[in-house]
Give the backbone structure.
Amino acid sequence: MTSQEVHDATNSEIIRVQYEGFGDLIKLDGKSFTFATLICGKTYKEASNLLREAGIDVPFSQYFYKIQKVILEKAKELAEKSVKNHALQLEPGTVITIDAHFSHVRNADECEFVAMGPKGDIVAKFVIVRSRKGKAGNYTGASCQMESVAADQALQILEDTVGKGIVDFFCHDRDNKSRNIVHKHFPDAVEYQDGFHCKKKFELCWKRLTSNEYAKSDMPIVDSKIFHGIKNRLKIFFNTLLNKHISKEQKLFYWLHAVDHLIGNHSPEYCLHSTKDEEK
């Protein structure tokens, strides 16, 4: 769905609202002003103050909000249609990638969960808005549970659209209880973790090791420059394994034998490359 599609779809309804509100005064500018304000992520006050400073008249706020309602309702309708069409194009044995984002890092009031197909198209989506003073929503629980609730709703919509057997794999960041929720709707789906988050976990695990007082007392090398050099070589090896097109069982085997790689034992049995490759 594009902004032009929303623009075209709302044209006749907007013109009707404009004639009711302002007659001939801005019958061609009212929709453009409202649409541009929404596209730029501005409020009525921000946009109107800017234009008034430039000597340009803007519609009254009550008519702006009337037009905004028409545009947003049509945009939602077209978005839902677009998501459903992408979902119906999924083929059996497909993979989906799932994630959520929040309106704030802590104590968020809004959470949007999306599932994307192998081509990057959104195939399921659900937005949670927490009810609060002065604003109605569809959720009243804790912010830490918002992603789980949104995931369950979005994947239920996807299941109702395509059935249980079409998703064979899913990829996520493992930051939530998403695995159990996916298996609720697609029981046979195989889990994969996003490679970027795997790299972040490597840094986190290493930081925990180097800040552990017991590790420092038992292994003085933890505080040495040599240890940081080991980290850099291990990190390269870790990232190489992540990007290598081999089975996860092979990746685990090579990772458990990372010490062989570090000490120069590059025999094919334990390492990804031979001693000759190392010499090159």
In short: Residues 21-28 have pLDDT under 50 and may be disordered. The longest helix spans residues 61-88.
